[in-house]
Amino acid sequence: VLHPLVMVIGFILVSGE
């Protein structure tokens, strides 16, 4: 199970591009 922080960080990285 992925931690909420991992999902948030990943989302930010994708949105940051």
How is this fold's topology laid out?
Elements: H1 4-16
As an assembly, this protein is single chain
User: How many E strands?
Assistant: 0
Through-space gap between termini: 25 Å
Count of DSSP H/I helices: 1
Uncertain residue segments: none
Indicate the overall shape: elongated
User: Strand pairing plus helix content: what structural class?
Assistant: mainly alpha
Q: Helix-strand pattern, N to C?
A: H
Major sheet description:
none
Helix content: over 70%
Tell me the β content: under 5%
Mean pLDDT: 92
Radius of gyration: 8 Å
Structure description:
- It is found in: Membrane.
- The chain has 17 residues and is mainly α.
- Helices cover 76% and strands 0% of the residues.
- The termini are far apart.
Short précis:
Keywords: Electron transport, Membrane, Transmembrane, Transmembrane helix, Transport. The chain is mostly helical.
Keywords:
0% strand; mainly alpha; 17 residues; elongated
